[in-house]
Amino acid sequence: MFARKGFYATKVSEVAKAAGVADGTIYLYFKSKDDLLVSLFEDRIMLLLATLERALALRPTPQERLRCVIEMQLGLLEGERDLAEVITVNLRQSTRLMKQYAAPKFMLYLDTIARVIAEGQKSGAFRPDVSPHLVARTIFGALDGIAMTWALGKAEAGGLSRAATQVADVLLSGLLAK
Amino acid sequence: MFARKGFYATKVSEVAKAAGVADGTIYLYFKSKDDLLVSLFEDRIMLLLATLERALALRPTPQERLRCVIEMQLGLLEGERDLAEVITVNLRQSTRLMKQYAAPKFMLYLDTIARVIAEGQKSGAFRPDVSPHLVARTIFGALDGIAMTWALGKAEAGGLSRAATQVADVLLSGLLAK
Amino acid sequence: MFARKGFYATKVSEVAKAAGVADGTIYLYFKSKDDLLVSLFEDRIMLLLATLERALALRPTPQERLRCVIEMQLGLLEGERDLAEVITVNLRQSTRLMKQYAAPKFMLYLDTIARVIAEGQKSGAFRPDVSPHLVARTIFGALDGIAMTWALGKAEAGGLSRAATQVADVLLSGLLAK
Amino acid sequence: MFARKGFYATKVSEVAKAAGVADGTIYLYFKSKDDLLVSLFEDRIMLLLATLERALALRPTPQERLRCVIEMQLGLLEGERDLAEVITVNLRQSTRLMKQYAAPKFMLYLDTIARVIAEGQKSGAFRPDVSPHLVARTIFGALDGIAMTWALGKAEAGGLSRAATQVADVLLSGLLAK
DNA sequence: TATGAATGAGAATTCATTCAT
DNA sequence: GATGAATGAATTCTCATTCAT
Predict the structure, then answer these.
(1) Which of A123, B39, D53, D85 could form a disulfide with D3 if both were Cys (CB 3.0 to 4.6 A apart)?
(2) Best-predicted range by mean pLDDT (B72-86, C18-32, C71-85, D90-104)
């Protein structure tokens, strides 16, 4: 609902009706309307983090690990256009929301990406002249931007995974040591 | 004000007071509160587009042109933390706002970047195996993500221009034909 | 709880928790939240009435009987600051509550005081030129006001019984026939 | 409206309609619904205080001054049954309201009465063996109780001023030095 | 008897917008 | 053009009460 109508335009009573419960019941499980949005985000980013850690454990080379990150971030949203819209668009409704709740969890995610880069640099696979954290922010932003334009546009099925391969190609060849 | 408190948390009366006019006066110049935000965005993106076109005219090689894009997008926000926050965070109020007003102008901007890529591919400078539009979305997203994390974090002076160089290095070597 | 937080600010669930039972259990013993307050009041005023009647039976002279009334009304609350607050403050929730439930019982109480006065007048002990009912209302109000200011203030231990003696002195010498 | 329906049972929108303004307009003049009630009380008690001080200035003897207090407190409500109900009943809805807002102004009023008593004691007119503040609380309570029973009952015209004379007789002869 | 999760009616308050001055 | 007092629609959240277990 947040994706379709926007967070502020969505009434709690609509969420309740869609969930098949009474208005008050929402408040037995969520502290406030804000909490509803934040929980959605946290659920997903924690899921992403957990899945990512597990997947990374199976990929030995830095190249594979980076592709893994890219595939997972876009994969989380593939087929879930509404979720993509909530996370890339609606979540950013208010700075307060972002700073207070989303930022900490989000930083954990950036840290994970940065660690992949740093390890690749240490092993000599990636160029050492760039900041791992900056690269992490670049990668996150690139994928987020792709998801956003995908969600706001036609959101074609399979579009994100096709994008993932190309983006990975470009970023990887930009990061590999010469 | 939108940046500091969020669009919805900012009252029109606060904007009026900050501008030193009466509440009603706002409505002599803007159709609605939404219009206030959209105008802000349009002003800036049109400025960015115009400045970018002018700057691109002076850069002959695709490499220089791409660096130019990167420097300008981040440069627009350098030193204007609040503006960065409005554009990367607050503007994403609602899908309606994005789709109806921001998207068209935004597409013009993506088109400009895509054109730079396509020209680079045609001239043989950039690898031909990636979609110019996808690369444009990647570049925009990367820069937007950097600006967002910069704005939400400490927003250190000079941070964005230092970032620009490194991002340009990575993206360029990822895009150059072998 | 009603005394500490006010009747409207006290949730039934808080009363239930304080009583160590589940919310629903309250409704097995009380018809409604209002009933909770009314029962509290009725319990106490009936207790006061019964105790008062018993005590009055032992005091032969009008003077003693009047002192008895004063001591009992203030004595009921001595050491029970919360109860004093409920009766003097919180019970006055709404005119409806007062008129419908409290007033009848309350009138019984005023009647008892008025009877003490009337008997004193008949016996020649009290001045005959004042209405017994008006005097009863005066006495009740005076004691209620003392209890209220005591409850809203520091509610010092022993404060009410010390007050009782002085008030009785004043009222008695005001009522005695010349 | 508060008197007729009780404070909690009265909706702000009803007050607004009765006042012939829109709901929101209430909030341009009062901070909250509570403030509406408190303002009513403060207005009146300040009026009472001012009128009382002025009237007291014209009465030389302690006896006259005490009668003056009694006449004014009951006189304020004479003919204003609703106001009497608000002040004696509705205002006492919550301890918070009383303690936080009403108490300070109320104490000023009690102080004024106590001063009348203390002066009477100093001049030798009143018995010296009772606390002026306790007597003030007694007098206030007696009058408040009379007003309350009057408001909750038939509230006959002229009832309060007739009561005033009798109460003054009793209290005065109770207070005069022997 | 006791429970406590679910209910949903209800109300205070906010704030974008208007328009008489 | 500018003002800012007044508007009133709109919405979150609370909490007394119920009832299946």
Answers:
(1) D85
(2) C18-32
Nearest to D140 by CA among D54, D56, D72, D38: D72
**Selected residue with higher pLDDT from C57 and D78:** C57
Q: Which of residues 15-34 of D touch strand E (CB under 7 A)?
A: 23-24, 26-27, 32-34
Pick from B6, B142, B163: CB nearest A96: B6
pLDDT of amino acid B94: 58
B20 CB contacts (<8 Å, ≥6 apart)? none
Distance, CA of A43 to chain centre? 11
Question: Which of A131, A139, A166 is opposite residue B131, by nearest beta carbon?
Answer: A166
- Ramachandran region of residue A94, left (φ > 0), alpha (ψ -120 to 50) or beta? beta
3-class secondary-structure state, position B128? coil
SS3 A176: strand
Residues B23-49: tens digit of each pLDDT: 999 999 999 998 998 888 888 788 888
pLDDT at res. B106: 82
Taking phi first (over 0 means left), then psi (-120 to 50 degrees means alpha), and beta for anything else, what does residue C79 get?
Answer: left
Residue A152 to residue B90, Cβ atoms within 8 A: no
Q: Do chains C and B touch by CB distance (3+ pairs < 8 Å)?
A: no
CA closest to A93 among chain B residues: B93
D30 min Cα distance to partner chain C (Å): 21
Task: Name chain A contacts of B129, Cβ cutoff 8 Å.
Answer: 166, 169
Mean pLDDT lowest among B60-74, C18-32, C75-89, C122-136: C75-89
**Does A142 score more than 60 pLDDT?**
yes
Q: Where are the alpha helices (DSSP H) in chain B?
A: 2-5, 12-19, 23-29, 33-56, 62-77, 81-85, 95-97, 103-122, 132-152, 159-175
Cβ count near A31 (within 10 Å): 10
Interface test with A, best of B137, B143, B154, B156 (most A CBs within 10 A): B137
pLDDT for the residue B99: 66
CATH architecture label of A33-175: Orthogonal Bundle (1.10)
pTM: 0.82
Tokens for B89, please give them. 């965070």
Which CATH superfamily hosts domain D32-175?
Tetracycline Repressor, domain 2 (1.10.357.10)
C-alpha span between D171 and D178 (Å, rounded): 14
Which residue is nearest to the C1' sugar atom of F7, using CA? Answer: D22
Q: Which residue, A165, A171, A100, is CA-closest to A134? A: A171
Listed by start position, the domains of chain B span: 32-175
> Which partners does chain A have (≥3 C-beta pairs < 8 Å)?
B
Closest by Cα among D36, D110, B130, D139 to A171: B130
For chain D, first and last CA: distance in Å? 48
Poorest-confidence range of B165-169, D59-63, D95-99?
D95-99
Over residues C55-71, mean pLDDT = 93
Q: Which residues of chain B make contact with A97, given a CB cutoff of 8 A? A: 6
Mutation target to probe the A interface, by most A beta carbons within 10 A, among B89, B91, B162, B169 is B89
Residue of C nearest to D152 (CA): C99
Q: Which residue is nearest to nucleotide F11 (CA to C1')?
A: A11
C133 strand F contact, CB < 7 Å: no
**Are B142 and A146 inside 8 Å of each other by CB?**
no
